[in-house]
Amino acid sequence: MASPLDSLALAQDLIRCPSVTPIEGGALDHLQAVLERIGFTCHRLTFRDQDTPDVDNLYARIGTAGPNFCFAGHSDVVPVGDTDGWRTAPFAGIISEGRLYGRGAVDMKSAIAAFTAAAAGYLATRDGQINGSISLLITGDEEGPAINGTVKVLDWLAKKGEVIDACIVGEPTNPKELGDMIKIGRRGSLTGRLTVNGTQGHSAYPHLADNPLSRLLRMLAPLANETLDQGSDHFPATTVAVTSIDTGNEATNVIPAKANAVFNIRFNDQHSAASLEADLRRGFDAVGGDYDLQVSCSGESFLTAPGPLSKLVSEAVTAVTGKQPELSTTGGTSDARFIQKYCQVVEFGLVGQTMHKVNEHVAVDDIQALTEIYQTVLERYFESA
Fold this sequence. Notes:
The chain is of the alpha+beta class. 31% of the residues lie in helices and 26% in strands. It is built from nine helices and 19 strands. The longest helix is centred in the N-terminal third of the chain and has 21 residues, at 105-125. 46% of the residues are buried.
């Protein structure tokens, strides 16, 4: 079952590419070369949009028939932060005490390496023959605005008539140990920017002014004090966090002319961005006065209901780790929110405790185990195809 490709060495090579969003950094170049050596046909896709940086992406496929099993992920990483706090150079890919250190070790270059090695291992057991296709969809825009990445690759594939039948996204899903958790959906995310307008005046004569802060606080009170719901069968309760309140007012004796607030709602499948915006406006209208509300939604909630794909991945995880993973929808957003519009998708990757942190690292043994899990998924998927 061992792969002819060393997933640990490939993970080190990818970490050594400084691919901080939106810079490609050589990561996709290196991955493409490896994939082409094992028989994949690769397409490099650069997308651009107004007021956003150009982003390089990679779609690779081996086989021409269906079904097409896809591994999806991102080669871009977040900035390293305080370099003085790192025990190793952030892009050195050094192994110390059984752990691989470096930016992207967890999120998510080691998973990409595991994808690739798993595919190589499966192909080796089949003498390169496959009852379908294996593909990799790797973006350089997941940690950024996510405008010129996965969503545009999927659109490009659809226009070509290319079909993906099932997908694993290799995000770090496990809270403590490999095998803890598979993500079968994600909450939606809505950000609101509220401006309340009033009339500036002297704080000693509040009756001559219209203090926007008083109305702003009444508008925000339900968001801070009320539970929007109790959760649903597969989702936790919707959460609201007020992240900023500001007037830009440096004087202590001046009532400001306007007040601003920003809040974020992580919502389950009982809501949509449209229904939440309507509820917000009804509440704000009840307070009254002049206000402006701008909302943006980075993704609606979605769910891949427990079924054949989650069962397949769960059984592969159990076969390798002995653990029965929880099926969860916790956490933030991921590119699975785009992929779910095209096919069944679940997320499974490494332990996420150090992602985005200084000294990001992963257990070397976990990289090998993840490779075995992914290869087991391929073997069982194509056995039943």
